[in-house]
Amino acid sequence: MSHEARMIHALSKLSKNPTPMKEATLKVLQENDEVLFENGACHVFAKCLFNELETRGYGLIGIRWELYGDQRRFSNTKHVACAKGNTLVHFHGVEYWQDYKKRMYDVNSAHQNFEKTQFRKFEITLNDLFTVADETEFRGKLNKWDYYIDEDFYEAAEKRAYLHIRNNRGKYRLS
After folding, report:
1. Whole-structure pTM over 0.85, yes or no?
2. Distance (Å, whole) CA 82 – CA 168
3. 136-147 pLDDT, tens per residue?
4. Per the structure, how many domains does the chain have?
5. CA–CA distance from 20 to each of 25, 48, 110 (Å)?
């Protein structure tokens, strides 16, 4: 079955009896790979990379953005990647921790108080990523960081992640 046929099959499964969450999920899955794996499925992409990199000593990390300002602290896990020491591997390829932080500052510098943001990385497990912590009619199944883990979404995103990785092995130092 071709990639397009697999995607049509996966999307058709999602579109049966669409809930608002499934409609939102369909919209995300219709985006290009960069948008998908930066805005909703980085955890799926990281899991697929981890399956390739675990034997090389890489683990999974979450990246939390902590914003300090006006006596308030906002903290949210914004990204999931594979890491070994200060080397990250994620959709963008191989990137050093300091370069990732600089890129995030550059990309988000227009946001008020972003210069006060601190980035923290922490180890996570596959169990952390794919254990249901909440389930609502609107958003479906979510892990403890509010990432979608609905089975249909996961299946469609995983197929795209593996295809992207297979077609870009050099980018992720898998060749």
Report:
1. no
2. 16
3. 777 778 888 888
4. 1
5. 9, 27, 31
